[in-house]
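Hi support team,

I submitted a single chain yesterday and got back a structure, but I'm not sure I'm reading the token output correctly. Could someone confirm the output below corresponds to the sequence I sent? I've pasted both exactly as they appear in my results page.

Thanks,
R.
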Amino acid sequence: MSFISFIAVFSITHYLPATATTNSLKIAQQLDESSVIALRKATQLSQEGLNLFQQNTVKSRQQARQKFQEALVIFRQQNHQQGQMLCLATIGKIYGDFGDTQRAIEYYNQALPLAEATGERGWKGNILNNLGLIYSQLGEKQTALEYYHQALPVYRQVKDKDGEGTTLSNFGLLYADLGDKERAITYYNQALPLFKAINKQTSVAVVLNNLGQAYSDLADFNKALEYFRQSLSLRRQVEDRVGEGTVLLNIGAIYLEQRQPQEALKSFETALPLFRQGGRKREEANILVGMGRVFDELKQPEKALNFYRQALPLYRSVGDRSGEATTLNNIGFVERDRGNLQAAIQNVEKAIAIIEDLRTKINHEDLRTSYFATQQHTYNLYIDLLMRLHQQQPQRGYDALALHISERSRARSLIELLAQANVRLTKNIPPSLLAQEKSLQNQRQIQEKLLGEYQNQPQPDPEIIKATENKINEIIQQQKALQTQINQQNPERRELTNPQTILKLPEIQKQLDQDTVLLQYSLGKNRSYLWLVTTNSLTSYELPKAEEIENIAQQFHTQLSQATTANDLAMGTGKKLSDIILAPVADKLAGKRLIIVADGILQNIPFATLPDPRNRSSEYQPLMLNHEIAKLPSASTIAIKRRQLAQRRPAPKAIAIIADPVYNHNDERLTGKPGNNPLAPELELERTALQRSAKTLNRNGWDRLPGTQQEAKAILNMVPGDQTLSAFGFDANYNLATSKNLNQYRILHFATHGFVNEQQPELSGIVLSLLDPQGNQIPGYLRLGDLFNQDYPAELIVLSACETGLGKNVSGEGLVGLTRGLMYAGAARVLVSSWQVSDAGTAVLMEEFYRQMFKEKKTPTQALQIAQRRLWENPQWRSPFYWGAFSLQGEWR
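Hi R., thanks for writing in. Yes, this is the structure output for that exact sequence:
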């Protein structure tokens, strides 16, 4: 089935007809008689226009526009600002409803300063909201977001619940369009009670419909149908034919998802005349695309193409570029299934050109990332088409182009971040924004301190902890929005950022050497692909569909993280996974260093733990026994990092270690009494229950990790004292971790608890001391957002904690987590973990890892391989649970 995002949502353009009546237009009494007569004529025309506008037909709206145009001429002659504003805004509304977005913007922009000058706050909110809606429809989501943010406080100031609900609903629409369905639902649920409170049934129906769409996108079809049916009932009660058509469209979409194409067709056919009668071209196009989808499902490609091709000019006429891209993508699917690969590629290339253009117009990183995630199906289709052409014509280089498209589809936000990592400019930034930036940071520190206090209570209140976390997240979101605003004030940052750094095959090969091969994966709905790249060759392979790979990979990851005995992995899912993703290239791996660009759930798999596909015995022999292994989020990232590293002088000192912080009031270092003390080394080796992570901060404090101090001291013993910085206990704090002192060290090592938030990765981080020597609570959470503000020009950063390599898996972007922040801060490479590691096992692994680097002069990738092998050779640590979690990401040389 072809991909289609034709489900329609209602946006709300706000209009206050009460302010447009004759009585509301003020006519100054001191005017001469001719002026009074003229203004009365203009007012009469405005009232006639309003009456026609409210009839809500194509013809009446066209007549209304003419009336307002005539009135506008008179109001301008008489310099009557209120009348001009009313006419301009209403004409803009009519043009917007007819899909003439450019004229709508033109008229709204003329009306906006007049609304401000005349003190018409309600109209100002309306215009701002409607401008936001238009820019959202044009795909310029960042601009839309800015207008909504301006409209919302205006409505709240004048206590306009209708306007407030409208803007909240349109916020939800914007986030839904960008793929953030959960945030969309939050906004819709804020809007719904406002509309119910003023008994505005039409808007209640709008929000119910949009909630249905959001739940449909989340595949909760029963809940979606429940909301759609509520909305449909209200639409029919108020005799809103266009609204009825939109809900029918969405119900048809649900039937399609449930593989009931005939039922879907009935809904679409009922809705189509409702849109045509109302002159709603965008909605008509949505219906046509839905009908095309039905006939695609019914294996009638000619009919499907006919409907898609009818939809294209309608989308173009109303400037709906997202709809146009989706339709081009659908045509590509049908042409592919008909065997017309070149025709399919032509349509998909047009779709991608639109997607790339729309993406560049979104300045907010999160919005850009979430939008790009919703478009990955188009890139996957393009890759699939190219690989099919490669099978037919293997000498034409289609596989190399497919690899390039794979690069274009992944880690784009990270690539752009890395490209601007050293551009820390404050030029052109107003002092007020810099002051606001500092204020938000102070606010966050206060909340972080409170969070620590709440967690250290004898009986922590989960609700209070959760509320505090939510407050911290709210501040973080404000900080990110402010950063976007600051970036917009600083055009040099954009000029110095080079997003055109997506590598093609020759550039990728230049990054490799004779001993290194790149394995790049792309998981697809129907089939997946693997490219093996060397300095002088490219070989491609077709793999099973994503679902099959993901199911096995998830089972394997679960086994690894549960200390499963080593041989179970060889006989179980580990071997199955290795047979699928490594066996096809086994004969080309001998003696090679492996650089892995993974996709989907494979990003969570430490490849070092996979059974070596060349091993034919029944005994488990992990891949790391014969290979150095490193990972990259994309091949292009290493080229950017190398350009930066080539211009950077190495830091003068060897290593800074922050370890064994003070987390709670029971710590011996506060009480002076024996308590949670480090165990003797020989006992500590037997204690493996202590783990260095948390899935949530909603917990009763943090246990001390004795192994971290042992780990740190063992490392420090290998390096001259004047080359090190060590911070234990109270000194292992947030202030040190964010100070400029750390930019003097080539290696930074954090040995402490980690915490991961896979839904909101900006909340992930590591835990530093939460108390000072007097027992006072202090901020101690070093989060992802903090890392983006640090200058860590390190050759290596080690997060010797749990799950620090995990994050939110964003389609097209990869894992968004701590690794991203560390690479942005300047790390050439990072060592992070994929599950909850053993405190004791990690201490042993880290000691051997550093011994190999400092004493044996090995590279980090060599050192990690040898350290993992040493634990493997020891029966006590043989299970990959103890040595397999850590993987190196970034520069391998």
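A quick pointer for reading it: The radius of gyration is 30 Å. Let us know if anything else looks off.

Best,
Support desk
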